[in-house]
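Hi support team,

I submitted a single chain yesterday and got back a structure, but I'm not sure I'm reading the token output correctly. Could someone confirm the output below corresponds to the sequence I sent? I've pasted both exactly as they appear in my results page.

Thanks,
R.
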Amino acid sequence: MKTIVIKDAAGTFAENKDVARKLRLEVIMPALARAEEVVVDFGGVTGATQSFVHALISDTIRKYGDEALEKVSFKDCSPVVQEIVITVTEYMQES
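Hi R., thanks for writing in. Yes, this is the structure output for that exact sequence:
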């Protein structure tokens, strides 16, 4: 299992799409290619932009579909972050 601590990578407010893209390309996608589970830990993060979460997981869902949703979990999300994650994942499932 691979754990990504968002606060360490993006600070207490996750908004940098380049950071999200780097995490997706260098951590999430390779882990899923190896059939590993990934925990995205939002502990200590007070908020995130929808564009950050989209850059973090949208291509992952596009490529791996339901498997991505089974293998990637989100931990310690504030209510604001949780709503954004839900919005992005629902949107990607519909498209």
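A quick pointer for reading it: The helical segments are 6-10, 17-33, 50-64, 66-71, 79-94. Let us know if anything else looks off.

Best,
Support desk
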